[in-house]
Amino acid sequence: MADQIAFDDFLKVDIRVGTILTAQPFPEARKPAIKLTINFGSEIGVKKSSAQITKYYAPESLVGKQVVAVVNFPPRQIGPFLSEVLTLGVPDENGEVMLLHPSLPTPNGGRMF
User: Fold this and answer.
1) 94: which DSSP letter?
2) What pLDDT score was predicted for residue 64?
3) Most buried in the list 6, 48, 49, 97, measured by CB within 10 Å?
4) Does residue 39 contact residue 17 with C-beta atoms inside 8 Å?
5) What is the pLDDT of residue 11?
6) How far, in Å, are 8, 25, 52 from residue 32 at the CA level?
7) Distance, first Cα to last Cα, the chain
8) Neighbouring-strand partners of residue 49
9) How many helices (H) and strands (E) would you count in the chain?
10) pLDDT for residue 90
11) d(Cα 82, Cα 32) in Å, to the nearest integer?
């Protein structure tokens, strides 16, 4: 378990819901990954993310799916791709990533609390 933090520290992490617009294989990545383009609504806009989610997801199955992502980390260069947000997931029993997502349709840009 991680160290306890103050609630104000939690509020610094901006986690939002968005809808995947495009998903493409990312063969240049060191570990198998998919390049995502995600719409976070008018306030944040469309952002890119690289996600190591190839075990359970094919690119064509992701378009239209809602996900949650940290939108206020600095962009991170992953090979030739600039990942602007961190798409969130949890590991299965083998460490393979399963995406976190709302259980019902949610407006893009909604902030997690």
Assistant:
1) T
2) 98
3) 49
4) no
5) 94
6) 35, 8, 6
7) 20
8) 36
9) 3, 9
10) 98
11) 16
- Model confidence, pTM: 0.95
Q: Which residues pair with 34 in a beta bridge?
A: 25, 51
Report CA dihedral (82, 87, 91, 95) to the nearest 10 degrees.
-10
Distance CA 108, CA 39 (A): 7
Strand-strand pairing, 97-99 and 76-78: unpaired
The residues, ordered by sequence, that sit 6+ positions from 29 with a Cβ below 8 Å of its Cβ are 50, 52, 78, 79, 81
* Matching residue, tokens 């104000």: 8
Please name the residue that has the structure tokens 């609390």.
Answer: 113
Q: What is the pLDDT of residues 30-89, one digit of tens each?
A: 999 999 999 999 999 999 999 999 999 999 999 999 999 999 999 999 999 999 999 999
Tokens of 32: 């198998």
Return the SS3 of 11: helix
